[in-house]
Specification:
single chain, alpha/beta, Alpha-Beta Plaits, Rossmann fold, 5-stranded mixed β-sheet, two-stranded antiparallel sheet, 9 strands
């Protein structure tokens, strides 16, 4: 089929890797010193990586390509999470400090290296929109985002429990919006702690629509 897809100009690409963390689907890799699309079905063609190339090597073109598959993306990320983490680890130090990928709870691997001895920030996916200091709050933490309104809180609890069982987690801070549906994040953490049988320092922070926060220690 003919569709829109990312195109990387090899003559302009210098292999810096700044585009890689911006690709949610993990479709990009640096191979032989150049960024490349791993497989057409992993690229949605939306171009989230587009504005993060200092060389201007990335554009969107329309060409014959396999249809994008979210299902295949999930399989790929889950299978290669440790490989992706390694690729991020060899980025320049300035990028390493702000890169942890993936961040969606459905996509993170429970045995990812960034969870060991981590301070986990479990946050509603809409909260960063109203939190002006989100990047400061997230600095130095393993970030997980989710939305219990559109996803199953039970699956969140199961994933969190697995993370806690496989890693020595230092703390968990839950940021949830003041809307009722968002309390599912708190429930998921409580259920995970109950299921894994571990005691972990926890804190919950309610985020108001205007961006104000109310902190509650557990």
């Amino acid at each position: 089929m003919k569709r829109k897809i990312v195109y990387i100009n090899k003559s302009l690409c210098n292999g810096c890797g700044q585009c890689i963390p911006k690709c949610v689907e993990g479709a990009l890799q640096v191979i032989d010193g150049k960024a490349r699309i791993v497989k057409d079905i992993y690229c949605d063609g939306l171009g989230a990586c587009l504005g993060h190339c200092p060389q201007g090597a990335i554009t969107i073109v329309e060409r014959e390509a396999e249809a994008f598959s979210q299902e295949e993306v999930h399989k790929y990320i889950n299978k290669h999470a440790s490989s992706v983490a390694h690729k991020l680890s060899v980025l320049p130090e300035t990028l390493q400090k702000r890169v942890q990928w993936p961040v969606k709870i459905d996509l993170v691997s429970p045995n990812a290296a960034f969870f060991e001895n981590a301070n986990i920030l479990f946050i509603a996916d809409c909260a960063p929109v109203v939190l002006k200091n989100f990047h400061t709050l997230a600095e130095g933490k393993a970030v997980i985002i989710g939305c219990p309104k559109f996803n199953d809180a039970k699956s969140y609890a199961s994933k969190l429990s697995e993370i806690l069982k496989l890693n020595s987690v230092a703390s968990i801070t839950v940021f949830y919006m003041e809307v009722p549906c968002c309390t599912g994040l708190k429930w998921a953490v409580n259920k995970a702690l109950e299921d894994c049988g571990k005691k972990v320092l926890t804190c919950e922070v309610e985020v108001k629509i205007g961006g104000e926060t109310i902190e509650h220690k557990w």
